[in-house]
Each structure stands twice: as structure tokens, then as C-alpha cells.
Amino acid sequence: MTTEELQTLIAAGLPCEHLEVTGDGSHWYATMVSSEFEGMTRIQRHHRGYATVGNRIQTGEVHALSMKTYTPAEWASRKAQ
């Protein structure tokens, strides 16, 4: 899987105001900013993020996905620092 394919997959499953995906083809890192994260715990946000890749983790197509998840307000606050 390529970076672009994974980014497209995540974007199709979660509306993001900002989405950045990097990785080496096996281990992936995603920064996701979505209003859907409002009111969710960190674990709930990660479950929501993992849901976008479906069974690709179980099949090994995506070996590991590390996420940073933010609401738009959290992202704006972070960028202002």
C-alpha cells in the first residue's frame, strides 16, 4: 500500500479537515483532524481511525498505524503555539 492509497482510504471513511499520512509501506503515522472527534475520548478516536482501514490490519496490508487525533479547535490551538 502506498501513502496516497492509505490517505485516500482514511479520507473515504472519515471526513477530515486535515489529514497527513507518512510511513514506509508497513508502519504508518497519521495526523487526523476531524469534527467527528468532538466529545470522544482518545481511545474512541483511535477506534474511529482504525475503522477507516477496515480489515487491512488483520490481513497485514497495513502492519501498524500510529495516530494523532485532534478536533479542529485542538488543532488550531496546537498550531497557534
What does this structure look like?
This protein has one domain (3-74): GMP Synthetase, Chain A, domain 3, CATH 3.30.300.90. Helix content is 37%, strand content 25%. The protein contains 3 helices and 3 strands; from the N terminus they run αββαβα. The protein has helices spanning 3-13, 42-51, 72-80, and strands at residues 18-23, 27-33, 64-70. Strands 1-2-3 form a 3-stranded mixed beta sheet. A hairpin with a 3-residue loop joins β1 (18-23) and β2. It starts with a helix and ends with a helix.
Highlighted features:
alpha+beta, 3 helices, GMP Synthetase, Chain A, domain 3, 81 residues, 3 strands, three-stranded mixed β-sheet
Output the CATH homologous superfamily.
BolA-like
Question: What about the largest sheet?
Answer: 3 strands, mixed
**What fold name stands as the CATH topology?**
GMP Synthetase, Chain A, domain 3
Multimerization status? single chain
Radius of gyration: 12 Å
Distance between the termini: 34 Å
The average pLDDT score comes to 94
Secondary structure: helix percent: 25-40%
Name of the top-level CATH class: Alpha Beta
CATH architectural grouping: 2-Layer Sandwich
Give the uncertain stretches in residue-range form: none
Number of helices: 3
Adjacency order of strands in the biggest sheet? 1-2-3
Q: Which geometry do the CA atoms define?
A: globular
Beta-strand fraction estimate? 15-25%
Order of helices and strands: HEEHEH
Query: How many distinct folded domains?
Result: 1
- Can you count the beta strands? 3
User: Helices and strands: which structural class?
Assistant: alpha+beta
